[in-house]
Amino acid sequence: MSRVRVLEVSRVAVQPSPYPVPDKTIELSFFDSMYVRLPHLQLLFLFPDTATDSFPGIIGSFKSSLTRMLPFFHPFAGKLTYIPSAARAVIDCSASAISEGITFIEAESDLDIRSIAKYGVQDHDTFVQLLPNVTVPELPTVAFAVQVTRFLSGGVALGIAVHHTVADGKGIWQFIEAWASICRTGSVPSAGFIPVHDRAVIKYSGGDEIAKDFIRKVAPNLPKTAAPHHSLQERMQLTKGTFLVDGATIKSWKKEGIHVSPSTFISISARVLVTVASVRGLTNDNGPFFAGFPVDCRSRLNPPINDSYTGNCIAPCFARMTASEVAGPGGFIRACAALKEAVIKANKEPLVGCEGWIDEALKVPAGRAVRFTGSPGFKFYEADFGWGKPDQFKVATLNRDGDVVLVSGKDEGTVEVSVVLPAQHMDAFAKRFLSPFSRI
């Protein structure tokens, strides 16, 4: 039974601004096209200490800062749509497309926000109620929506939904950071702050044809998106948990893999791989086991593109091992080495074989992969809208067995790890993940 009640649904318009909003569509790059059929990314910020007696003022601050910020990030006000004559999906940023504005939902809840803002195994159904309900059965669809919920016992939640074709993790963080800054200070960014949305900055021979091919493969029935179907029974069997890895633990993991010199990302990811393979009972399984993870290509392209680019610019990479190599003795070292080798290869040649990215992903057997997204460098806990930093940040869009998200934690040097596993494996994962190596 829902414990969140919608109070009002309104629209936030793009405010007229000296910063010109191009009246045109944005053709998706091959980086963007991989995500056409996927559901919106859903991000949740929880502020337990925010007083709700000033809720109308909070809503006003969110809305006024959003309308002033959207001219800088106009694709977020657009619509993802399909152009049959060109066999292309685009972000429609024309005047008519953005004239409706952003969907903005105000809600209230009798839930206890502090029971939600905690680590460990979580109640995903509760999170969903605190997020904008955006479905994508077919195009066009909105690029972005907002829900702000006040808790009767105190506290506020900010939920956003953004379609992945609009931006990758770095682009979304740029958006959140700018919005929070305007909301907190009341000032728009300086003239030097101009995020880049034009996909033409990505120079790659044959890129347009690759983009069309990706769309044909992932969404052959456009404008119907044919999103992956997950039955209720399948969803009920999966659980989600978030775990905080402190600096001392990360240091100990790096020391364990000292001969490989693993980065923070590699040491945490290797630990996740070993724990998942272990709880799945794969110690004697010689079948394949994959780790998939994104690599930011902005600085690695030729020519490189600026960090101010908001569109997708991440290459999917895979490290391949056997399950027994990961789950057995010495699995952590082998996992670190395999991940590091894949990272080194991606750093040198990020786009080699890019036309086969979709085919490679589709070949990974079900239940044989851990898919990492996010980064320990994503500092979503820095999102201060004017009433302090969030107490908890959660990525709600985790739908498959083996999905993992990494983000920087609240405290310096910490990292949060969110994991999706079948219920029968989650308790064992929770007990083993942060325990000494001898107990894995």
Low-confidence blocks of residues: none
- The radius of gyration is 21 Å
Oligomer: single chain
Taking the alpha carbons of the first and last residues, their distance comes to: 38 Å
CATH topology of the largest domain: Chloramphenicol Acetyltransferase
GO molecular function, one term: acyltransferase activity, transferring groups other than amino-acyl groups
InterPro entries: CAT-like_dom_sf, Plant_metabolite_acyltrans
Keywords: Acyltransferase, Transferase
Protein name: HXXXD-type acyl-transferase family protein
Characterise the protein shown here:
This is HXXXD-type acyl-transferase family protein. The chain has helices at 30-33, 55-69, 95-98, 113-116, 124-129, 169-185, 207-218, 232-237, 247-256, 264-279, 323-327, 331-348, 357-362, 423-432, and strands at residues 4-12, 25-27, 41-47, 79-83, 88-92, 102-109, 120-122, 141-142, 144-151, 156-162, 238-245, 288-296, 314-322, 369-375, 392-395, 403-408, 415-422. The chain has 440 residues and is an alpha+beta fold. It has two domains: 4-218, 2-Layer Sandwich (Chloramphenicol Acetyltransferase), CATH 3.30.559.10; 238-379 and 398-439, Chloramphenicol Acetyltransferase (2-Layer Sandwich), CATH 3.30.559. The strands form three sheets. It has a seven-stranded mixed beta sheet. Strands 1-6-9-10-3-15 form a six-stranded mixed beta sheet, with helices on one face. The longest helix has 18 residues, at 331-348. The two termini are 38 Å apart.
